[in-house]
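go over both lines:
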Amino acid sequence: MKKLLQIAALLLLIYSYAFAKTSTEPLDSIEEIVSVFQSGSSKELAKFFDQGIDININGNQGDYSRSQAELVMRDFFRKFPPMGFQLVHKGSNSDQVINYIGNYESEDGVFRVFIRGKREEGEIKVYSLDIVKGANKN
């Protein structure tokens, strides 16, 4: 019986360590968002959206729920399929507020993408997305 308890305790310890290791690593990072822009997946991008998000695409601005924003981005990716995305600036005002700037490339040209968000429990929650056509690559 004592040996069974030791084995159970060991398994519990291993499980706890594995769970703690994965839960302390950031689940969502800017590298994942870059990858999503490169693939053009509105569904994957929506996972990073806050409950409400402000999206401005070439002056067409609106406040959307996460599901509405997914549809807006789906339309954008359909009209302008991705050829590449490069992050050109990482910034933050504090540990919680993040600002990123990237260049989204499609056949129709380059778009400058401004991503504003916050960190909550190790995850990035995007609350503002501005996409402007005709930006310089640099």
